[in-house]
Amino acid sequence: MGFFDKSQQLSTFTFLGNDNFTIKSFGNDVSMHPIVSSCIDCISRHCSKATFSDENGQQVDFLKRPNEYQSQSAFIYKIVANLKKNNECFIYIDRNKRNKVKQLHVLNHGNCKIKVIEDELLFEFLLPITGTKKVVPYSEIIHVRDKYMNNEFYSDDQQETLKNLVNTKHTLEQGIEKYIHTSNLVRGIVQVNAIVKEEDLKKYLKDFNSQIFDLENKSSYAVLDNKASFQPISSNAQIPDHEIFESVNREIYSYFGLTQAIVENSASEDEMENFYDSIINPILKQISEEFSDKLNMTVTLALNNYIFTSFQRKVNAIKELMSFGILDINESRKLLGYSELGEEGAKRLQTLNVVNMDLVDAYQMNGIENKSQNEDQMDVKELTGKEDNKEENNKEENNKEENNKEKDKKDKEETK
Q1: Distance between alpha carbon 208 and the CA centroid of its chain, in Å?
Q2: What's the CA gap between 243 and 224, in Å, rounded?
Q3: Of 49, 74, 75, 398, which has fewest CB within 10 angstroms of its CB?
Q4: Ordered per-residue pLDDT tens for the chain, 416 residues
């Protein structure tokens, strides 16, 4: 439960025999650690590029500047930063007497409480800037959650997991500091080869140290007479392995669903698109749903789908989409970051290689009808041809018979 963080005492570990070098835990506010702060900033910064719009795609007036202290981008950044730091965020809806929204304020997570009084769910908090205490119905609070599984109202407190990772990294960083500290130490025993008083022993040690650590002694050597000798003691201090650091870093990045490349702005386009689909888009979707419910209107917080795409890939996408009439000129210019052209830009262009389906159907139906007519004509011609051939054959037969008759007649006359 993210509300009631238990105070944790600072742990200190002292290694005996190592010049009282101490290892301390990082503390309670792990969001102040550089790597955690970078992760929260990365997600919040990318979300702050989104814009609020209504059901018609137009900007909502009171969300252009949610309050007198913050722009829309700063407001969205603060919502997401609180969400990732505390696993939840509370926004107070300040309404006027006519119940219209005046301002929206992101509340300090540590000054908020949910109470049930006479079966009514109330929310107690301190106003930003003035610190005035207010109690309002829970319905006047926009409540955005992260890692929300077990409790009905609150997100799960998984900060202990992150604290353990940060403390491990902090310990490794202190290990490097310890290595640098001990590697510059001179360790050894000054042995006096005579029976001397305790005061003389201290004097030998003091003289030896003054020679070693004298700023004017550039050689770092010290001189002893034959009454004393120095026996050095080697240090076994070792620097932590680099792979251990990388492993802990990956665990922290993984906690936020990130990679080092995304945080350092060196990720590929495919990685950034996956980052948008898996991390950014779910956050924007939840904020949209909560705002729509509590403000009693359709509110959408969304990013341009091509925001992580290079200019060349945008141009290639526009070529393909415009050729099918999917984008008009204004939409194409908006993708490239150019201003719209008004009504002239609302035109949709289309390549001649793409044909309207109704025309295709009509063309195909005309083709079928023409084909049927052609086939009928061919059948008529075929039948007519057969009849003509039959008549010609009959004529030939008749001619042959007449010729035979005339020949027989001639033969008979000759015989007589």
Answers
A1: 61
A2: 45
A3: 398
A4: 444 343 333 344 434 344 444 555 566 778 888 899 999 999 999 999 999 999 888 888 889 999 999 999 999 999 999 999 988 999 999 998 888 999 999 999 888 888 888 888 898 998 888 888 999 999 899 999 888 777 777 777 767 788 888 888 878 877 777 766 666 566 666 676 777 677 777 777 777 777 666 655 555 556 666 666 766 666 666 666 778 888 888 999 999 999 999 999 999 888 988 999 999 999 999 999 999 999 999 999 988 766 667 777 778 877 777 777 788 888 888 777 777 887 777 777 766 666 666 666 666 666 555 555 655 566 555 656 555 566 666 666 766 667 666 666 666 666 65
Name the E strands within 54-111.
88-95, 101-106
CA 383-387-391 angle, 5° bins: 170
Tokens of 12: 């200190």
The pTM of this model reads 0.67
